[in-house]
Amino acid sequence: MKIIRIILLTILALGLIASTAIFILFQTFDTDQYLNRLTTKASAFLGRPVSIGQMSLGLSWNGITLDAGPVIVADDPNFTSQPFIKIDRIRVLPDIASLVLKREMRIKEILFQFPQVHFIRSEAGLLNIQSIMASRQPSVIGGNAPELPTDQSTINSAPAVPIKSVIRDIPVDSIKIQEAAISYIDQSRALPLDIWLNGINLSILDFSLSKPSQIFMEASLYNNRPNVRINASLTPELSSRSAQISNLNLSVDFSKLDMEGFKSISPDMVDNPIFSDITGMVQLKMDELNIVPAGNWAAKGEITITDGIIKDFNIIQAILSRALGFFGNIDGLLSPSLRTIIDAKDTLIKKADAQFSFQDKILNLDDFLLQTDLFELTAKGTVDEGLNMDAQTVLHLNPDISAAMINDFGGLKSFMDDSQRMAISGELKGIIPHLKYKASKDFRKKSRKLLFQEGGNFLKGLF
To answer: What are the residue ranges spanned by the domains of the chain?
Structure first.
């Protein structure tokens, strides 16, 4: 019994000594002496001035914690003197057990609270993120930047540091981002944009610099609750300063959308009838997305929209009026019941599906299909970085609508295809969303032939 008592007292004494040592360490450990070294390395790595407000060690139920913040990464001075990234607090929870027992450095959790990131695209089409992590000496912010107290002379004299000498592949069980906000401002003359995404909560599980990690995210897009959800696999490529995202699934719910806020994205959306009201679910599936700093991204995937509504805009009416307008007053030739169907106020989308690829800043619509109760619209074409669209389209009216139109106007029978549907080919060109529709040369040629063959009888039917 005495031996057991001695063992217990020894363990208790060692525990008290260890607790006292930890207490003294936390009370006397000066984290400020590491700030200059850390900010200098971070600035050299990113090629931007970085400032960290303060650092502190603490204890929690999860073990030792390291807190830092606020953390500010400066923007490219060619864009703005405001922060590119600002994070209120970063908390790191190291895995002490792995360090002591296995001599392995591992992180349990890294937490980013209330980060803000601001992307800007200049009139020349350059992004403020393109110069980050460049292999050069970091630039110095011009003008006054009072919220960046980092020693500028130290940053400017620091040589560019190779990535592998700054970042080690330390496994992290989870990385969490709480209540983040992202803005994207496009100052290009073609299509000015101002997009905000708020309430971003993101988790990255089993993060590593050498193998894929899983990403889960939800956010609010012009809504008072989360309506954007993403899950994907992320693999960083440090040697090329790039990243690969695979098996990406994104969904956006447009129900209860703040339309006034949504239309503020661009002046071109304010008075456009397409954006008077939008509902429905948009789903994006992407097999692979390669992200590189220069902006030459590559991607391949699929976008699907289900149960959507475009308020106060009727696609079939717009195309028919353009395609058949040269026949005269088409409305006067159609029966009242058919005009009621075609003149519906809204476009109800059963499904829209697009197979796409992205390469050299060009979005290729490899196969697009829009399905409604009245018609199907197929398209193939391209969209460049200025949102200039050039696409070839074919509109198929469903068999019932086709038969009703031919019953009212027999000359349209020549536009029937093998599926007993009217087929109207054309092209969409212009800057999104200001697209112009034009019937194809083949369709116009067939129409002129029809007019010539029908002669007086045809013209008599028009008036």
So the answer is: 31-309, 314-462
